Amino acid sequence: MKVKNKKQFVFWRYSLFPYILGAEFKKIVTDDGWVEVKGNKGSCIKPLAMFPLEKGLKIQKQLKELEERRLESLQFYDKILKETFSYLFKKY
Questions:
Q1: Which of 2, 11, 43, 61 is deepest in the core (most CB within 10 A)?
Q2: pLDDT at 39
Q3: End-to-end Cα, the chain, rounded Å
Q4: Is residue 17 part of a domain?
Q5: Domains identified in the chain, total number
Q6: How does the average pLDDT of the chain come out, rounded?
Q7: Reduced to 3 DSSP states, what percent helix, strand and coil does the chain have, rounded to the nearest 5?
Q8: What's the pLDDT at 33?
Q9: Quick check: is 20 in a domain?
Q10: Cα distance between residue 54 and residue 77, in whole Å
């Protein structure tokens, strides 16, 4: 793995929504592509994608906005679910 410019942003798979995380690239750790990112000391990740820093930050911002919209939607449907349960069980 070669990195032309150290100012890179990497994304890797994650088990929770949005199922991808990202951070600024720090250094290559192994020949088979594992890297270290800033703010994640000692942990190595296998990148899913690598972008120039500015583009990666824009993508990260879009993912954050998506996560916020998802949370708002979930809260809306949770409210409907609670109201429906309340209505249904008032009868009994």
A1: 11
A2: 85
A3: 65
A4: yes
A5: 1
A6: 90
A7: 40, 25, 35
A8: 87
A9: yes
A10: 35
